[in-house]
Amino acid sequence: MAGVLVASVDDSGVGLLRLDDPDTRNSLSVAMREALLEGLERFDPDPEVRCIVLAGSEQVFAAGADIRAMAEPGMPAPSERTGPAFWQRIAAVKTPILAAVCGYALGGGCELALACDMIVADEGAVFGQPEIRLGIIPGGGGTQRLTRAIGKQRAMEYVLTGRRFDAATAHAWGLVNKVAERGSCLDEAQELARIVAERPSVAARLAKRAVLGSEELGMTAGLAAERELFDEAMATEDRVEGMRAFLEKREPNFRGR
Ligand code: COA
């Protein structure tokens, strides 16, 4: 994976992708974007991977777009090359993705965490959309996903000032699912991911789609979409197994179909 991302899968069905480019503080260079897509799209169809954890290092989750590559006057914005496709392809991943954010999640790094389905943050994590300080604006969903997550007034303030906010604030605003004690963020994220991985995988993917649908659709269309996905879940063997197991007072043995 071009040496900037480390991938592994554990016995419980959790795939781990660790951004590993300390020299650029895990900036989303073309190499990093390609490695991330390759990793996610390799895990997504793999039945052994039922939840994905995306993590950086202890110091930095991701420092955002590759400023060095964007600094030249007149250069085409990365959005003309890998931008929209990168974010669309992340959004198209069907497997639940959990971000384990330790250290800085700035710019595209914050957007990457927001593109995941849940976020566990180290208590020292720092979030922000600093693009305005560089003369640009967020281009990977920051104005949209951040606004949906924390509300328009707060998002406007942070997008306009470029100031950072901490993990406790992110948690209080509903951006973060859990704040982990310093040093335990990845463990906590993997623990949560293991619970998701224990659930029937078809239903987990349908549930992800249904919840994300609420961001795209109005209430009536959203309820209709939910009903279709519910019918798909009802048609699975895992539904029969899950309900039988409940009635027989035993643990279910889900097979992912
Ligand atoms: N793109 C490219 N390179 C980056 C980068 C980015 N987004 N963020 C950091 N780097 C590089 C620096 O240029 C520096 O390179 P050098 O060693 O060749 O000088 C190296 O990573 C270390 O950066 P530094 O700022 O010294 O590290 P730090 O640990 O003191 O601070 C950050 C870490 C993340 C707080 C800081 O690097 C930062 O603010 N980065 C930019 C965040 C940003 O504005 N993102 C939005 C981009 S649109």
Notes on the protein architecture:
It is globular, with a radius of gyration of 19 Å. Helix 4 (108-115) crosses helix 5. With 257 residues, the protein is an alpha/beta fold. The protein has two domains: 5-198, 2-enoyl-CoA Hydratase, Chain A, domain 1; 201-247, Lyase 2-enoyl-coa Hydratase, Chain  A, domain 2, CATH 1.10.12. Helices cover 46% and strands 16% of the residues. Helix 1 links the parallel strand 2 (14-19) and strand 3 (51-55). The strands form two sheets. Strands 1-2-3-5-7-10 form a six-stranded mixed sheet, sandwiched between helices. Strands 4-6-8-9 form a four-stranded mixed sheet. The longest helix has 16 residues, at 201-216. It contains eleven helices and ten strands. Coenzyme A (COA) binds next to helix 2 and strand 6.
Task: Describe this structure in a few short sentences.
With 257 residues, this protein is an alpha/beta fold. It has helices at residues 30-43, 67-70, 83-91, 108-115, 142-150, 152-161, 167-172, 185-198, 201-216, 219-234, 237-247, and strands at residues 5-9, 14-19, 51-55, 60-62, 97-101, 104-106, 118-122, 126-128, 164-166, 178-180.
Look up the CATH topology of the largest domain: 2-enoyl-CoA Hydratase, Chain A, domain 1
Major sheet details: 6 strands, mixed
Bound molecules: coenzyme A
Number of discrete domains: 2
In CATH, the homologous superfamily of the largest domain goes by the name: 2-enoyl-CoA Hydratase, Chain A, domain 1
